[in-house]
Write a structure and sequence with these properties.
This protein has 610 residues and is α/β, with parallel strands linked by helices. Helices cover 17% and strands 27% of the residues. The strands form six sheets. It has an eight-stranded parallel barrel, surrounded by five helices. The longest helix is centred in the last third of the chain and has 16 residues.
């Protein structure tokens, strides 16, 4: 059964993503509660996504399953599976608890030849938040959908609402059985229909701007109408356009410098330049970078002597100094994409460095920047068992990766959709903490890489969609790579010197700040079903208004993106007028409305009277 060719991780990451768990707002026309106590729309993990391998070449009768959890209590009303050619015969579906006890059973009827099939349980099953359950079905003729390596990086947030898939399983034989075995972290495209029984206010891990009250230096970020927007590793004193680059970045809407090129060299006056331009600084450089040529724990040899940051802050006044960057990509088992890299930093070592830094200065938070391990990239799966330990050591969780143009990643693993997956993944690993996601610019990989479509760089539309996808899925700040790796040289400030990239940065930053009140608000529950390109969406309430924010992305099957039609399901069957960001008026009837998207197009919808 399990003699298999390996498929790309992107077979999973290309799924339609939607919102994080939520809280429901008021509605001008509330409907009576659904039978059984459900208060939110029915959601699934996979939506209408189609697997890259819909029918694996295995004719053996097999039970296939998915392990999942929910952040909200609710009702599992049925089980789903994706049917490919050859997956014939009578199918049975079931739900089990973590101990393998069967909780419900259903037979599939009126199946289509291919595509998603769903069976309804005679009685809904009430599940508890945080517990692990398994849904599965019997494929009597085999030929089931399969995506090997889908869970290599650990749990992945999929689909709509509060559900998270944490692994796949199988059981051989012609009788439905608990799918307890696993192989190559494969996902088998099994799903559930789920309706939450608890609404709005239950979001125990949602970030709020009150978080910044812990430190006097982060007072500027308590304003919920603004987002931190950073740029990576620059020297703000560099002359530019008659003045300096600190003011040039500020003119593009950047408000934070993340890392400093020569920190902590006092003579450069970098913090003074940032202060003059109104920029905050997350200071740090290579203090905990891996030592060249070393491996294992010895590669991460930095100690408190390498972190004289508090003393430097005192010398420089520090009005702009908002925090410290502690380490860069401690989560990658092959740093810099090389097979002889240092290996992952031991989590206890990272925690020790963080403690020593906080002892030097308790008035500022510590940022740790993670790479493609936490991001879920194909180049380096990292050390998944350490991820929660890593994020526990950080006050600010930052994630960098080249989701569109990484030259070391297979084409099927790249695309705008990876930004949605990364933000959701980081949010799950760092409950209640700020998550800042790095963005690449159109000039970053020009001449040095290729996007899935064969282009040499990310397009402005892709970059804008990547920012929206990250924010929709839980990012609470953005950071920019300004570097270019064109030809044989690196230009650290290329995004300022390339007019197209500068214009893109300005536009994306304006978008982010225009809707900052919503991005900073707890996510609410919304369902989304799409035709065409995937659409990822969230429902947020801010300033007495409720809005759906959504963006069309792409998938391994649609690497250039494309048009999409999305149908949104609102809480409590809300009905009324909806105002779009481009001046149109739509109508939600019995809790749903539909709209079209061009390739990589974002939309913001405001619910009238909400």
């Amino acid at each position: 059964m399990h003699s298999r060719s390996r498929s790309a991780l992107a077979a999973l990451l290309g799924l339609t993503l939607a919102t994080l768990p939520a809280c429901t707002g008021s509605s001008p026309r509330p409907a009576p509660p659904s039978p059984g106590g459900a208060v939110g729309p029915t959601t699934t993990m996979f939506g209408s996504a189609e697997p890259a391998t819909p029918a694996f070449a295995d004719p053996a009768a097999t039970t296939l399953g998915v392990r999942f959890t929910s952040t909200l209590p609710g009702l599992v009303t049925g089980v789903r599976f994706y049917k490919g050619p050859g997956n014939t015969g009578s199918h049975l579906g079931a739900l089990w608890d973590a101990h393998g006890r069967q909780l419900a059973l259903a037979a599939f009827a009126d199946e289509s030849q291919t595509g998603w099939q769903q069976a309804k349980f005679a009685e809904p099953v009430r599940i508890a938040p945080g517990a692990t359950y398994t849904a599965g079905y019997l494929a009597p003729s085999g030929h089931y959908a399969a995506a090997p390596n889908a869970f290599d990086g650990g749990p992945v947030t999929l689909g709509s609402g509060p559900l998270t898939a944490v692994g796949g399983g199988f059981a051989q034989g012609g009788t439905l059985a608990f799918p307890a075995q696993s192989h190559e972290n494969t996902d088998y495209y099994v799903d559930v229909a789920f309706a939450p029984t608890e609404s709005a206010s239950h979001v125990p891990d949602a970030f709020t701007t009150a978080y910044w009250s812990k430190w006097p230096a982060t007072e500027r970020w308590k304003d919920s109408s603004k987002l931190p927007i950073g740029v990576w590793m620059q020297d703000p004193t560099t002359p530019f356009d008659g003045f300096d680059e600190a003011h040039a970045f500020a003119a593009l809407g950047v408000n934070t410098l993340v890392g400093l090129w020569d920190w902590p060299e006092e003579e450069h006056g970098q913090i003074r330049a940032a202060t003059a331009a109104g920029l905050a600084v997350i200071a740090g450089g290579g203090a905990c970078a891996p030592a060249p040529g070393a491996t294992g724990a010895a590669a991460w040899a930095c100690d408190t002597a390498d972190l004289p940051l508090a003393a430097q802050a005192a010398k420089l006044g520090g009005a702009a100094l908002a925090g410290y960057q502690l380490a860069d990509e401690p989560d990658m088992n092959v740093p810099n994409g090389t097979p002889t890299g240092a290996g992952c930093m031991p989590p206890e070592k990272l925690a020790g460095f963080a403690r020593s830094l906080r002892q030097q200065d308790r008035t500022r938070p510590v940022l740790v920047n993670f790479g493609s391990g936490v991001a879920g990239g194909a180049r380096s799966p990292g050390c998944p068992t350490d991820f929660s330990g890593y994020t526990a050591a950080a006050d600010i969780v930052s994630v960098d990766f080249y989701g569109i143009t990484d030259p070391s990643s297979p084409a099927r693993t790249k695309g705008v959709h990876t930004y949605a997956a990364t933000a959701a993944r980081a949010r799950a690993l760092a409950p209640g903490k700020p998550v800042w996601v790095f963005l690449e610019t159109p000039v970053q990989m020009l001449g040095g890489s290729a996007t899935p479509s064969g282009a040499k760089a990310a397009s402005p539309a892709q970059v804008r969609a990547a920012a929206w996808a990250a924010l929709v899925n839980g990012a609470t700040g953005l950071s920019w790579f300004c570097h270019s790796f064109a030809a044989q040289s690196q230009q650290v400030d290329a995004c300022l010197r390339d007019a197209g990239s500068a214009a893109t940065i300005r536009k994306v930053n304006a978008d982010a700040q225009a809707y900052a009140g919503y991005w900073n608000a707890p996510p609410l529950l919304v369902g989304v079903a799409t035709q065409g390109a995937p659409v990822t969406a969230t429902l947020r309430k801010a300033g007495g208004r409720t809005a759906v924010l959504a963006v069309a992305t792409d998938s391994p099957e649609l690497p250039r993106g494309g048009p999409a039609t999305a149908t949104f399901t609102l809480p409590d069957r809300w009905s009324g007028k909806i105002r779009t960001d481009d001046g149109r008026t739509l109508t939600a009837t019995d809790g749903t409305f539909t709209d079209r998207f061009d390739a990589y197009q974002p939309h913001a919808y405001t619910l009238d009277g909400s």
